[in-house]
Design brief:
The complex is a heterodimer of chains A (397) and B (441).
Chain A lengths: L8 E6 H11 L4 E3 L7 H12 L6 E3 L4 H13 L4 E5 L1 H6 L1 H9 L5 E6 L13 H5 L6 E4 L3 H16 L7 E6 L7 E6 L2 H7 L16 E2 L5 H33 L7 E4 L6 E5 L3 H14 L4 E6 L1 E3 L3 H8 L4 E6 L10 H12 L6 E5 L9 H15 L7 E2 L5
Parallel strand pairs in A: 2-3, 2-4, 4-5, 5-7, 6-7, 11-12, 11-14, 14-15, 15-16
Antiparallel strand pairs in A: 1-8, 6-13, 10-12
Chain B lengths: L4 E5 L10 H10 L8 H6 L15 H5 L5 E3 L6 E3 L9 H5 L5 E4 L4 E4 L8 H5 L5 E5 L1 H4 L19 H13 L3 E5 L5 H4 L12 E3 L5 H15 L4 E7 H7 L1 H9 L5 E6 L39 H7 L4 E5 L4 H12 L6 E6 L3 H5 L5 H10 L6 E4 L2 E4 L9 H5 L10 H21 L1 H10 L1
Parallel strand pairs in B: 7-8, 7-9, 9-10, 10-12, 11-12
Antiparallel strand pairs in B: 1-6, 2-3, 4-5, 11-13, 13-14
Helix pairs in contact in B: 7-13
The chains are: A alpha/beta (397), B alpha/beta (441).
Chain lengths: 397, 441
């Protein structure tokens, strides 16, 4: 993008800078973000935009992520469009505020640069922060490339601010693997983003001219109804996201498939499920295995909450076996989070087949084509009716 | 609405057989008889009006069919013009305070006219129990409109409610209040479709009041909107769990008005100790037994910490000195840039243990003993706004309050030393105080 933002431009950016460009194009009224690695560059880039006069937002560096989310709450409840970025411990520190803004249906958009949560002392990539916060009532979208990070932020505002949704959205991408990966990114013009994303209009808003209580005590019945409506709105976000992405594709010429991205799954016997940056490696490995004659496909989860139940069931209906790659372990279940969710989808859809779980990529460990190749072979064995281990930790084998 | 002046009782010292006030009134009123009843004066609580309060919008005047009742705009006195009185008694019926009287012989209404500004009852009292209270000076700070609904859901005797109601009247309608779970939640938060006040209110978590306000403040600035954004939260919130966010917002000079009602503990959850709980205090987390003697350390002195942040305005205040508070809140309201912080000691009958009609007395003694000095800080200068000529020992304060009852002489002396130490430290900051001390020595 040129400084005036009047023509599309391709720049080589890392994930964090792509996120900052995405946020800037969406014209937030208030941005509050605390520098916590690996997202600090998002904050730095936004401040440099402000310094250059490219960003007309109130920009605040608070003393913590807890206050970041509090500040966005105050701005959003008064009618403003807001943005923040966080990671790992930061996300956990703002957790209680995240729940509150979700129940108050405030369409905040944030970036979470996924990172393993301590301890021991680890500042490494992982999914444990997002998985631990999956129940906080936000929509979670996961990117695979720097371009997708930018695009998802633009779409996230449309989704969050949609009158039928009004749910905050977290755009997630892997720490280091994407946050510090440099790729060519096409930056849309300000005008075309403005057309796609009109100004945020909301009512009621905090205003002395129209006094009211924001957050009164309510009876259990009303509160229950409130929860029900919140749940229904989150659920509606699935179809709405597919719809918004189709519109995005018409406007910007790029699409990713909505809630899930399917790669060579149509005629596949077996499918590997992945989320985040490892899906790129998986894509290459799937091609390699196809060359060897294996009918394998890849299914990438882009929308993690709400979970794309319906589309997964449709995509997996005719398959012989599937494998799920998880970058976390769900303590007490001895398996990964996504694995559990996928199995639950299959049960509800009446689909019975071998489902394998590969717990890898924890604490920064590389997910290589070799590991994914072994995983695909294991799924293939299970599809042929051979005995298999349900949960495998490839890094420890 | 113009000022209200009236006579009020300030000391509960009336001997049972004294009726000096009534006699003086009867003498002054002549044939019509007294408008003060000594029996009622004896029964009245401290700071209660014992005469007509000279209402701003007098009901008696409204109902009079013959314009026989007038309110003097200068003095505020409501007067009966007896030549115009037709003796219909509508006014005696209308007065909600039973302060309009009727002489059945002369067939005229009569009432207290404050003896033209020098009430005889006040000078007649041999015990100094009565005071001519000039409400006008306080009322001058207030808006006409009452925003808070009548009645209160707070504990009986809670001065936190008084401060909230009073603050709303001072701040006026271009105000948004922010609060969190705590004693005042029951007043501030509405219930389903009902609100307790006609000012907007944003309920926050215990931990995100200041950050939420900051967000609203920054958004308002972004769209060019101005309003008083006011936190009314307790000591547990600000001195403990919210302290980090408060400190950061103070440093950033966020344009917020922060009012801390300090009842020295987590009173809403049942009197647990907070950072502002005083040395020796018995609370549910600083109990008294064989091994423990109440809180074993001094309190955190929040207002001076806010001075260290060098924000635009810092003050301490007390519900026993409302005019002082009104002046300070008005100053806070007029701060152009940055944060203002007022720390208000609100004695808690429920948690501290004293009779519900003693909240103001306790508040007053807190100031008179130098336990809670009243001061303000602006432009780098700290100034005492009230100085007791002869500070009473801390025991005069603690003896009223049951949370200190277990304290022995040594412990009370230790508390006295802490009080003196804090007051002296304050003196180092206070130029005016130092000047006064210099004059004295």
């Amino acid at each position: 993008m040129s400084d005036k933002g009047t023509s599309r431009e391709i720049k080589v950016l890392d994930g964090n800078r792509a996120a900052a460009y995405g946020a800037m194009l969406c014209r937030p009224d208030v941005i509050a973000a605390y520098p916590i690695t690996p997202q600090s560059e998002v904050v730095e880039t936004l401040f440099s935009f402000k310094a250059q006069g490219l960003l007309d937002s109130e920009l605040i560096e608070p003393e913590s992520e807890h206050s970041s989310m509090g500040i966005l709450r105050g701005a959003s409840i008064a009618g403003g469009r807001t943005f923040t970025a966080t990671a790992a411990q930061g996300l956990l520190f703002m957790f209680e505020n995240c729940i509150q803004v979700a129940t108050q249906r405030l369409p905040i958009v944030m970036v979470n640069v996924c990172r393993e949560v301590a301890g021991p002392h680890i500042v490494v990539s992982g999914h444990s922060d997002t998985m631990m916060t999956k129940g906080m009532g936000w929509i979670q979208l996961h990117a695979r490339s720097c371009q997708e990070i930018l695009d998802l932020i633009v779409m996230a505002y449309r989704l969050a601010e949609d009158p039928e949704i009004r749910i905050p959205v977290a755009v997630c991408y892997d720490g280091w693997f994407l946050s510090h990966l440099w790729e060519p990114v096409e930056i849309p013009t300000r005008e075309e983003v403005a057309r796609f994303l009109p100004p945020f209009e909301t009512s009621p808003r905090v205003d002395p001219a129209r006094p009211m209580v924001f957050g009164p005590w309510i009876s259990s019945k009303v509160a229950t109804e409130y929860r029900y409506k919140q749940s229904a709105a989150i659920s509606r976000a699935k179809a709405k996201f597919d719809e918004i992405e189709r519109e995005f594709q018409e406007n910007f010429g790029r699409g990713y498939g909505g809630q899930i991205e399917e790669y060579r799954t149509d005629d596949a016997d077996i499918v590997l499920i992945a989320m985040g940056s490892s899906a790129s490696t998986a894509k290459v490995t799937v091609d390699k295995k196809r060359d060897e004659g294996l009918k394998v496909g890849l299914l990438r989860i882009r929308m993690f909450t709400p979970f794309p139940k319906e589309r997964l069931a449709t995509a997996l209906k005719q398959k012989k076996a599937i494998g799920v790659m998880d970058k976390t372990v769900y303590f007490g279940w001895e398996c990964g989070n996504i694995f559990l969710d996928v199995k639950s989808v299959l049960y509800s859809a009446g689909i019975k087949m071998p489902v394998l779980n590969f717990i890898c990529g924890l604490c920064d460990s590389d997910i290589t084509t070799e590991i994914i190749g072994r995983a695909i072979d294991a799924i293939d064995q299970a599809a042929q009716g051979k005995p298999y281990s349900e949960v495998v930790w490839p890094d420890l084998e | 609405m113009k000022l209200s002046n009236f006579v009020r009782k300030i000391r509960d010292v009336c001997p049972p057989d004294c009726s000096a006030c009534e006699k003086a009134c009867a003498e002054k009123m002549g044939n019509l008889g007294p408008v003060i009843n000594a029996g009622q004066v004896h029964k009245a609580g401290v700071y209660k009006a014992i005469t007509c309060v000279q209402c701003g919008n007098p009901a008696c005047k409204d109902v009079c069919p013959n314009d026989a009742i007038v309110k003097d705009e200068e003095s505020g006195v409501v007067r009966v013009i007896q030549e115009n009185c037709i003796g219909c008694e509508a006014c005696t019926e209308a007065c909600p305070y039973q302060n309009m009287f009727f002489d059945s012989n002369a067939k005229v209404a009569f009432k207290c006219d404050l003896c033209g500004g020098a009430p005889e009852c006040v000078s007649a009292c041999p015990y100094g129990a009565l005071e001519y209270f000039r409400g006008g000076t306080i009322r001058g700070y207030l808006n006409d409109e009452e925003y808070l609904s009548p009645g209160t859901r707070a504990c009986a005797g809670c001065p936190g409610e008084l401060i909230y109601r009073f603050s709303q009247r001072i701040l006026g309608s271009n105000t948004v209040f922010f609060g969190c779970p705590g004693c005042m939640t029951i007043l501030m938060t509405g219930h389903e479709t009902m609100a307790g006040s006609r000012l907007p209110y944003v309920s926050c978590l215990f931990t995100n009041v200041i950050s939420t306000m900051t967000g609203t403040s920054r958004y308002y600035r972004h769209i060019g909107k101005e309003a008083n954004l006011v936190a009314y939260v307790g000591d547990g919130c600000l001195s403990d769990i919210e302290f980090q966010a408060l400190s950061a917002a103070a440093m950033r000079r966020e344009k917020l008005i922060v009012l801390c009602y300090d009842n020295e503990g987590y009173q809403n959850t049942g009197n647990q100790m907070s950072s502002t709980t005083a040395f020796g205090s018995l609370t549910t987390t600083s109990p008294v037994g064989k091994e423990l003697r109440g809180k074993d350390r001094d309190s955190k002195y929040m207002p001076l910490i806010m001075v260290a942040h060098d924000i635009s305005y810092v003050a301490t205040a007390s519900p026993a000195y409302l005019e002082d508070y009104a002046r300070k809140l008005t100053k806070a309201m007029n701060v152009k840039d940055g944060m203002s912080y007022i720390h208000i000691l609100t004695p808690c009958p429920t948690g501290w243990g004293f009779p519900i009609d003693k909240s103001i007395d306790v508040g007053k003694l807190a100031v008179e003993t130098n336990y809670f000095p009243l001061w303000e800080y602006e432009d780098g200068i700290l100034r005492l706004t009230y100085k007791s000529d002869k500070p009473q020992p801390i025991s005069a304060y603690t003896k009223l309050i049951s949370r200190y009852r277990h304290m022995n002489e040594d412990e009370l002396q230790q508390l006295q030393r802490l009080v003196d130490k804090r007051f002296n430290k304050l003196g180092l900051y206070s130029q005016s105080f130092r000047q006064k001390e210099a004059l004295r020595t």
